[in-house]
Design a protein that fits this description.
The protein has 315 residues and is mainly α. It folds into four domains: 78 residues, Annexin V, domain 1; 70 residues, Annexin V, domain 1 (Orthogonal Bundle), CATH 1.10.220.10; 70 residues, Annexin (Annexin V, domain 1, Orthogonal Bundle), CATH 1.10.220.10; 63 residues, Annexin V, domain 1. It contains 20 helices and no strands. Helix 2 runs parallel beside helix 20, helix 4 runs antiparallel to helix 5 and helix 5 packs parallel to helix 17.
């Protein structure tokens, strides 16, 4: 592990990210080192430098590189790398909101829709973050996120994802919400409407009380009940949303456990400066093996080194 990790001048032990500002940061020195590495196609050095800087510092480096060389750093990186490593390093170079917008667009591009990636982002981001992501999405693609979601989804699932994008917290009453959700499950055909309405319009603490109360009153674990009573995409949507309300770290750990490169990239990059330490703990609890060790079993080469640098250490 890079010893500078422990010397970050802005670091405090309350920080739950694994990637922190590099304390001895000199962008001009980084520019020289990166420029030399690009000329030699020295990918290992590129990985070492860029994964040991936080996102703001990477963007400062890119701007300084442009000023010093009149060349775009990202374009040169594309020529130097390929495959999964290229995809990961380019994600690291994106500002956070841009990265989320990029993942949402990729989830809807081409044939088929990646519903789980849509849900991962929409269910784990706050209403303010989603408004920011939506604005950036429009800037990047000259498209409207809500319209694209409607075009790529249908039925109750479409109502759910649109409600998540537009979610605005209002006050609710715990017992009343419990009764509304319980009533929907007791109908001959479960009604998704109250679930969509309540789960997308209350704060997380309120919803945790509602879901816990519902489980206590019914004597059943909620997600298996939802999987039994609903079908199709709305079953997936409600199950993921409930999982993210109850324990988002556990949900993201489960996503990581499949060890699919695009998912691993997306989750680790998105959460590297926020709460990846918590997700690592949840991963260990879920699988019995640390994320750091598991990555070594599924990836290799410079790609692995980049992932390990983001993960940072064993648990």
């Amino acid at each position: 592990m890079d010893p500078q990790y422990f010397k970050s001048h802005t670091m405090c032990w309350g920080t739950l990210g694994t990637v922190r500002p590099f304390s001895n940061f000199h962008p001009q020195k980084d520019v020289i080192q990166i420029h030399q590495a690009l000329e030699k196609k020295d990918v290992a050095t590129l990985v070492s430098v860029l994964t040991n800087r936080n996102n703001v510092q990477r963007r400062i480096i890119a701007e300084a590189f442009q000023g010093a060389t009149e060349q775009d750093l990202v374009d040169l990186m594309k020529k130097c790398m390929s495959g999964d490593l290229e995809a990961l390093m380019l994600e690291l170079m994106m500002p956070p909101m841009q990265h989320n917008a990029h993942r949402l667009r990729q989830a809807m591009a081409g044939l088929g829709t990646d519903e789980e990636t849509l849900l991962e982002i929409l269910c784990t981001r706050s209403s303010k973050e989603l408004r920011d992501i939506s604005a950036v999405y429009t800037e990047m693609y000259e498209r409207d996120l809500e319209k694209d979601l409607k075009a790529e989804t249908s039925g109750d699932f479409a109502k759910l994802v649109v409600a998540l994008v537009k979610k605005d917290v209002i006050k609710g009453f715990v017992q009343r919400d419990i009764e509304s959700l319980a009533a929907s499950l007791n109908e001959k055909k479960a009604d998704a409407a109250p679930w969509i309405d309540i789960l997308t319009s209350r704060d997380s603490n309120h919803l945790k009380k509602v879901l816990k109360g519902l489980e206590l009153e019914s004597g059943q674990i909620l997600i298996p009940v939802l999987e039994k009573r609903f079908s199709g995409d709305i079953r997936l949507g409600l199950s993921v949303l409930v999982a993210c309300i109850q324990n988002p770290d556990a949900y993201l750990a489960k996503r990581l456990s499949r060890m699919k490169a695009p998912v691993v990239h997306g989750v680790m990059v998105s959460h590297s400066e926020e709460d990846l330490l918590c997700i690592r703990v949840a991963f260990l609890k879920l699988t019995g093996t640390s994320l750091y060790t598991t990555l070594q079993k599924h990836f290799n080469g410079d790609h692995l080194e980049a992932l390990l640098a983001i993960c940072r250490s064993e648990d």
